[in-house]
Amino acid sequence: MYQFIKYIVLAFAVSLSLISCKEKQGNKIKVGFSQAMTTDDWRKQMNSSIKIEASLRPEVDLTIKDANNNVNKQIEDIEKFISNKVDVIIVSPIQSKPLTAVVEKSIKAGIPVLVVDRKIEGENYTAYLGADNIEIGRIGARYIISHSKGTGKIIEITGANGSSPAYERSLGFNQIINENKRFSIVKTIQGDWEKESVKEPLKIALQQNPDVEYIFAHNDRMALSAWETAKTLGLENKIKFIGVDALNSVNGGIELVKNGVLDGTILYPTGGNEALKLALKIYNKESISKNNILNTIVIDKNNAEIIENQMDKVDQQQVVIESQQEAIKVQEKEYASQNNLVRLLSFFLVIILSLTIYSIYSTISISKKKKQLEKINQTVIHQNSEIQEMAKLAAKSNAAKLSFFTGLSHEFKTPITLIMSYVESLIENDKIKGTALIDEVKLIHKNSNRLLRLINQLLDFRKIEEQKFTLRASNTKIYDFTNEVMLNFKGEAARRNIDFQLICKNKNLDLFIDRNLMDKVYFNLLSNAFKFTPDNGKITISIIESSDNSVKIHFKDSGIGIPENELSNVFNPFFRASNNNKNSSGIGLHLSKEFVLLHKGNIELKSKQGSEFVITLLKGNEHLQPSEIIQKVENLSSIPSLITDNLELESELKDLNAIADSEKHSLLIIEDNADLVTFLKAKLSNEYIVNISDGSDAIEKALEIIPDIIICDINLVDKDGYEISKELKKDLRSSHIPIIILTAQSNKEAVLKGLQSGVDLYLTKPFSLSILKQSILSLLFNREKLRYYYTNNIYRVEPESKFGNQEQTFITKMNSIIMANVENPKFSVEELADKLGVSRVQLYRKVKAIIGINISDHINNVKLEKAAELLKSNEMNISEIAYSLGFSSPNYFSTAFKNKFGISPKEYKTSS
């Protein structure tokens, strides 16, 4: 009896539980989704992702209405959602303008609207979710620009007229293309998102422009049609095709990229699961952004297979989730059926018992399946996170490579500058024939080889990445080889007093090495050693035989070393240590490691007091393949020194009619490139007193010397050229000095920034020496004209507002102070300097630089001008005027007055 009552109570409890469950279902959040995707693949992908998200949220009642690309049907579907008073409406508009009114109607009815994929006209909607179609167009253009190697001619195939994605993608694409003069859009074809709209107009366009390099289509279907059309003309292999969508389906974008039909496709995410999540946030009145942009990436042959595998995994998980959902629905239906039976046959003990057991079993089963579903969902989320992380890493890698190529191109400009300047010098100087020509030729040759090394290093990096290097090892006496390379650095070591040694006990030691590749390894390691080792330092190469049939070659220097926490990153491409302020491409050590690995060797770094690189190579040739060994020894080509030897230029032809030092203008060159400094000093020292600074003490040296003109680079050791120019122009002591910027940075932004910092002239490398010389003369001439103006109009300088320069302000203020104290006999230079806020020495230098006379003479001139006014007024006699203006005696006053005006005070008074 007890058991019977127990089963009855249990049955009623289950019944009440089911009734409660149904009541809860009646309170679900109603979400209406008006679908308008134009293709089956998009519908399937969008609907599948939003259904999966809804299945994970039991509180959501999702209704999907498919307008099947019919605008009127979509408006009707939304009207029904409004009349049914759903909680949130998600709309994917077919067209923007026709749906604007019905969306505004929903907003007025108090139903929030989330617009996805395409926007409506105006801003009267709750939120928008979709990809940034303008950015998609930009990404397509950037991809073409970065990969183009041909004509730069492009055909664009747009989407349907009136479609916001078509307009925005075209806008973004044209923005980037129009910024690059090498590229041009020779034809824009209006498509309607489908294949057939492309073929005929494209065929005509290709016949007119057979040398087109790229075709950019607004979706993959039109891109495929473009490829098929090009194939009929035999142009499919000459043109590269870029699409948008990247669907993982038959003839989808990813498959077309893998098959080589498309060169790339841009992922256009549907965002179904994100749409439902955002809709629930809107319903819960959480803070959201008005515009929510989905991330995208470019998919090409490098990542197509990875993305496809990830999407396949997601699709597989979605299939599993859908099957689980169907099983849950079946279980829920069976559960409801059992509930009805329990309510009808609650008094039949056996039936109650069986239904109870079955209901308990069903509950456990559903719980297990839900847990499995949650686990699968977590796997999907994790995989999505991995895809996003991979996209970020790819973007970071591309940014690093772009930065590398930009930096390297600037590094080329200085050597090119030297080459062009020396060539120009040789052309213009007829006297140099048969004299010191060899010195300049050597410098041209040296910098040419430097440029060649940089270019070869770039090519080596490409070859290493593509694994195209083949080892050509020959039997080599490593001592002789090392000594031969060291010869190229002996001059630099001597010039900088660096102790440069080679230590080797066995001078007949043989190793199988590729002399060409190992030469590059040696050169990179020694270049770094000399770059970071100070003068009077020490660099040692030690060759040591080990007992394990190997040889260790140590490159040790006494330089600045590398921070311990960065040692593991030294051989990574594009890496630069935090304490490295030198210009560097960041690939030298990476290439060195790869070349050593080709020898089946190893390279490691130790850094305590300076840096020590250790190369380990095996003896003999058993570790090498027969194809990697050559019998004939290849001679090591001489390595040109990249370090300027000051002795090389000492024999340069001297001008016999050089200007005397006392008559020369002083010049300060602020530049950290030793070759360029030596060249400029050699070419300008006959006409100017040349002072130099590497940038670390530029401001201090300028204020110490007060030169007549300054030539300054931008990329310097401590402060850049902009900061130096700005500080010097703001400083009262140096504001009058003309500044010429001489740099490799030639873009508009750099020039504008230079002019804003106050420089007088902006010249870019490569530069013409004759133009530089003429520019210096012009600036000095203009300074002399200004000095002449100030000297002859010193008492009538216009107010500051007329010209607004600092010198004019200074002179105006100085004159006003002098005039206010002109009748004060105790007024001194020290008091004037104090009122101007400068020292006595600074005042003397400033006045001398601006008006060409010292301050004492200037004060006397002002007093004499005042004396002339007093003489004209006839109110005082000559002695009274002399003593009132602070002159020691009337005789001294008369002498000074006559020296200035050419007549005595008495004659001046009489004539007036």
TrEMBL record:
Record-annotated HTH araC/xylS-type domain positions: 812-911
Record-linked InterPro entries: CheY-like_superfamily, HATPase_C_sf, HATPase_dom, His_kinase_dom, HisK_dim/P_dom, HisK_dim/P_sf, Homeodomain-like_sf, HTH_AraC
Listed Pfam families: HATPase_c, HisKA, HTH_18, Peripla_BP_4, Response_reg
Residues making up the signal peptide according to the UniProt record: none
Name used for this protein in its record: histidine kinase
Enzyme class: transferase
PROSITE patterns in the record: HIS_KIN (PS50109), HTH_ARAC_FAMILY_1 (PS00041), HTH_ARAC_FAMILY_2 (PS01124), PROKAR_LIPOPROTEIN (PS51257), RESPONSE_REGULATORY (PS50110)
4-aspartylphosphate modification, residue list: 713
Species of provenance: Flavobacterium ginsengisoli
Coiled-coil spans in chain: 314-341
Domain Response regulatory: residue ranges: 666-780
Gene3D superfamilies to which the protein is assigned, alphabetical: 1.10.287.130, 3.40.50.2300, Histidine kinase-like ATPase, C-terminal domain, Homeodomain-like
This enzyme's EC code(s): 2.7.13.3
Catalytic activity: ATP + protein L-histidine = ADP + protein N-phospho-L-histidine
Location of the Histidine kinase domain: 407-621
SUPFAM superfamilies named among the record's database cross-references: ATPase domain of HSP90 chaperone/DNA topoisomerase II/histidine kinase, CheY-like, Homeodomain-like, Homodimeric domain of signal transducing histidine kinase, Periplasmic binding protein-like I
Segments traversing the membrane: 341-361
CDD domains: HisKA (cd00082), PBP1_sensor_kinase-like (cd06308)
Keywords: Coiled coil, DNA-binding, Membrane, Phosphoprotein, Transcription, Transcription regulation, Transmembrane, Transmembrane helix
